[in-house]
């Protein structure tokens, strides 16, 4: 392993840690969808009337987004990469 490769890898690691997969997918959506998703996940899953992670994932998957339930769950509970380093996304 050369030092160049290590630097590249570390840079990649650094960049990838700012956002989880769900955050990345959110960035690709148009503003209306982004807004709706944010509204959905702003309500904890166990609140009455909240959309479950399962239904959200199924809907996104039907639209071709490659996302898993644990990714959505972590983002919703704000324990994903987006919320590390004091991020506010
Ligand atoms: Zn996230």
Walk me through the topology.
Layout: H1 3-16, H2 21-28, H3 31-42, H4 53-62, H5 69-76
Bound molecules: zinc ion.
Zinc ion is lined by residues 20, 22-23, 75, 80-82.
Tell me what the structure shows.
The protein has 89 residues and is mainly alpha-helical. The chain has one domain (19-86). The protein is built from five helices and no strands. The protein has helices spanning 3-16, 21-28, 31-42, 53-62, 69-76. The longest helix has 14 residues, at 3-16. The structure holds zinc ion (ZN). Zinc ion binds at residues 20, 22-23, 75, 80-82. Zinc ion (ZN) binds at residues 20, 22-23, 75, 80-82.
Strand content: under 5%
- Whole-number average pLDDT? 88
Structural class by helix and strand composition: mainly alpha
Q: Which ligands, by name, code or SMILES, are bound?
A: zinc ion
What gross morphology would you assign? Answer: elongated
* Largest β-sheet summary: none
The low-confidence parts are none
Number of strands: 0
Helix segment tally:
5
Q: Give me the strand/helix succession.
A: HHHHH
- Rg on CA atoms, Å: 15 Å
Span between N and C termini?
35 Å
How many structural units, i.e. domains? Answer: 1
The percentage helix is 55-70%
In brief, what are we looking at here?
This protein has helices at 3-16, 21-28, 31-42, 53-62, 69-76. The protein is an all-alpha fold and 89 residues long. Zinc ion (ZN) is lined by residues 20, 22-23, 75, 80-82.
Feature tags:
single chain; mainly alpha; binds zinc ion; 89 residues; 0% strand
